Structure formats: C-alpha cells, structure tokens
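ENTRY TYPE: paired fold submission
RECORD: A
CONTENT: sequence, then structure tokens
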Amino acid sequence: MNIITFSVVFFVLVVFLSHLIVPRSYHWEKETISDLAARSNKHKWMMQLGFLGFGFLLTIGMIIRLINNLNYPDFFVLFYAVAIFLSGIFCTNVFSEAKKSLDFQAKMHKLFAYIAGCFFSFSIVAYIFVSTNYLAVLFHVSFLFCFLLVAVLFHLSELNIIKIPKGILQRFLYGIGLVWLTIVYL
C-alpha cells in the first residue's frame, strides 16, 4: 500500500472511530465531519488528528510522487493536502445550530476546507486535460460532475435552501473524493 492510499485509509478509520466516541448531541446526518473536531467535543483531538494526519500523509505522498514523476495535476492534489492539513489546525465551534456564530478559528477552518475543495476540483480538471484516452477522460469527467453536484447540494443545504441533511451530503462529498484519490493513485 502506498502512502497516498494509506492516507485515505487512515482518514476513513479516524472518521469511523470518531463517530464511536462522539457526544449524544452530535447527529451525523445533520452535522459535518468537521463538527467531530468541534471545540465543544471533548474528543475533538481525534478528528483533528485525522485532518492533520491525512493532510500530512497525503502531502508527503504527493511530494514523493512529484519527485519521482513530475505531473502537473499532482500539484493541485498537493495543495489540496496542505489545505486539509491547515483545516485541521483550526476547529469549528459547536454542533448546536443555534450557536453556530463563526469566530476566527471556525472561519479559518471553513476557509481552508473551501480552498481544499477548490484544489481538489482543479486536480480533477487537470487530470482531464492530461488524460490521453477516452476512458480516462470519461472517468475524470464523471467524478468531477459527481463531486461538483454534491458540493453544490451541500452548500444549498448549508443555506437551508434544500432539505437534504448536510452531514449526509458532506459524507458523500468526502466519499467521492477519497474514492477518486484511491483509484488515481493506487
């Protein structure tokens, strides 16, 4: 197993374990994975470690890959990894919807999460342009479409425009991204 695949397995394992020790007030359908690292959660360290570890391991994996094979789409994945790492430094506030005013830490976490999403999208687009066969292009276009569709739905849910729970949408968003990373870098 290469370090990139290991970073994905590590992150999925930490998310799973974080769900096992989360307070009863946390509802996975409504709350995000980032909320597992909310400052109100006494076990926030575990999910913070998940973001930091995933970002760090993926960064190391991408640096090694870039040293061995300079491929410009990998730079976008590297920037995605760094943004994920930085999002792990900062924590969201609390799960409770009524108390979700954003302070500096929460704003920084959200900013780096958005930056990560943008770089992830850029990496798929870059792979579309460097792909040399029709099936590879179709693969990347399909994942980009799914990723962007779920991202838009997630933001509409955050704005209460649609009634699909944002926790479910975000988990689909992560799932799409982690599957793409695993397949591309297997």
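RECORD: B
CONTENT: sequence, then structure tokens
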Amino acid sequence: MKYNVPDRVMRDIAVFAKECSIQKVILFGSRARGFLPAFAVLEGTLRTKAEEAQDNWD
C-alpha cells in the first residue's frame, strides 16, 4: 500500500515502533492539516504509553 509520506518518515516510524515493540501503526490525518506536527504529538503519546506499560510490566 502506498502512503503519501516521505520514505524517511516511514523508516523513522518503523524504527520507533520496533524499539517500543509496537506491532501495528495506524496512520491517519491529512497532509493539508500538517502530518509532521501530528506525528510529533503521536510520538510523545506513544513514548508515554510505552513507559507506562513498562512500569506496569515490572
């Protein structure tokens, strides 16, 4: 499936997902509304949730 997202961004998403053991990433939104700021917020949220999950796992 082709996405209207730069290859570098897709690689960054894949690396981040692998580091956090995320099995599925759902992309949503519109480039007209600004994809990159939304990704920055999403990254922060995912990092927070990954830390919470790790704390609960320990």
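NOTES ON RECORD B: Helices lie at 7-19, 35-57. Residues 35-57 form the longest helix (23 residues).
STATUS: closed
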